[in-house]
Amino acid sequence: MSLSKDQVQHIAMLARLKLNKDEYAESVEKLTRIVDFVDQLSQADTGGVIPMAHPLDTAQRLRPDVVIETNERDRLQENAAAVSGGLYLVPKVIE
Amino acid sequence: MSDTQQDMHAQSMSELAAGLDRGDFTSVELTQSLLDRIGRLDEQLNAFITVTAEAALEAAARADKARAAGEGGVLNGLPIVHKDIFCTRGVKTSCGSKMLNNFISPYDATVVEKLSDAGAVVLGKSNMDEFAMGSSNETSYFGPVRNPWDLARSPGGSSGGSAAAVAARLVPAATGTDTGGSIRQPAALTGTVGIKPTYGRVSRYGMIAFASSLDQAGVISRTAEDAARLLGVMAGFDERDSTSIDRPVPDYVGGLNKSIKGLRVGIVRQHFDAGLDEACGVRVKDAIAVLESLGATTVEVDLPNLDLSVPTYYVVAPAECSSNLSRFDGVRFGHRAENAEDLLDLYCRSRGEGFGDEVKRRIMTGTYVLSAGYYDAYYLKAQQVRQLIADDFKQAFAAVDVIAGPTAPSPAFKLGDKVDDPITMYLNDIYTIGANLAGLPAMSIPCGFVDELPVGLHLVGGHFAEQTLLRCSHQYQQATDWHTACPADFK
Description:
The complex is a heterodimer. By secondary structure, chain A is mainly alpha-helical. Chain A is 34% helix and 4% strand. In chain A, a hairpin with a 2-residue loop joins strand 1 (83-84) and strand 2. Chain A is flat, with a radius of gyration of 22 Å. Chain B has a domain at 3-261 and 484-490: Amidase signature (AS) domain (Amidase signature (AS) enzymes), CATH 3.90.1300. In chain B, a hairpin with a 2-residue loop joins strand 10 (442-450) and strand 11 (453-461). In chain B, helix 3 (27-45) runs antiparallel to helix 4 (53-68). Chain B is globular and about 65 Å long. At the A-B interface, helix 1 and helix 2 of A face helix 10, helix 11, helix 12, helix 13 and helix 14 of B.
């Protein structure tokens, strides 16, 4: 099955990726090949098989809901491009 | 300089530990000599993204002081390198991406912390495929790594920098990560040892996530003994990783010398089908014959769903990647586009500019298979097939202790050869991916050469059978000397 340009545009938007024109053309071609390749899964007989939830057949471990981390906001924000007064700055969202 | 000092780079970690104990050299001397070697030789390889010379020499001096006081951990003063996927406090942690080219990690990964606490000296951070997505190291923002056995060839990936550095004797051992073969395939292509432990055996805390149900940290070294030594330090329960397994860590080094007499080795017929380079197949069969000569018995086993492992992986891994990599938003850390028109533009352009082609492709594949209307047909279906693959292994391990076969379908390929065709590249991992899908430990060890390029023997074990894999590999290395071969230009 071939993916259309519209489909790829939709996927890129869902994934929040801006692609240039060349990247779109290449993505349509390569994603189509990847999807064709993984389509062979549809041949597998999986009737009654419970989808794997954990590779070790165990459940996710829980821990008591207690505070174990200290607040290191200033240090963590050193990697942000724009902060002010402990807040992250982004382009204006509400006019 | 004495002889023992001159050939420090050629020694395994265990030999270096003995040398430090005897006082043949200090950790500062050892560290400086390897830093000099990196400075002299890495230009050809591009195995390093960052060399942390100053911090390494400081750590070495601390190790020497501890040793003089009769203190220090089990790796005291021994040099290692971390794949640049492990967060390292105060050091750039790029994950091979432009996205994180400006990221200075505010904390240490558990693996980094444990190895440093044991006294290891970190020489730097190794190059890798971007976000560990690749099998040739060509997707790195920092350029491809070159294979020390032939500089025109790939060292494999994604832990290609770690593998090339170990193969070229720039460091005795390095950390790596393996989501579909990213430790074992580069180990095979560079003639080194690589072990991917059982899912959950080593903490993933601080290891930048690619596909969380598959990712696992491990070791690349030149001997199975060194792999055992490092894994013993890295493994163990970690409160900070919710998938970490709370189970005692065996004495991996202590278990190495037990004979493999009676070990049941499974052979999968399909592993030797047309997909495998014929000469590689001969080397692998020779290696299995060596195991038999050491007392192992071989049993034919069947993995009927093996062919579906690569397509299963290329649904599950991209799906998890698209979710994990959604954290890169240009706001809190990482690359941020300039002059964004609005918030959406900031997200889309920061990500469009920060990620390379293969990463974008995997994010989009993952987004597609998880999107409305496709989830059942792809993601759910893949998790069902994944269960079938895991069941196949379970059944096989009822009859055998390890499964032996080739690690990769061919020796190292030329840089540029497979980069334009994602499917050919993906098929490189056909023999390794199953272990990730089923959460099993697996290992690659050098077992000979084809056209002067190394070939790897792949061993897979049942859950938590690391000790069996390490023992089998160590016994093989006692009987053979492939692991001592050194690329001509890096002696």
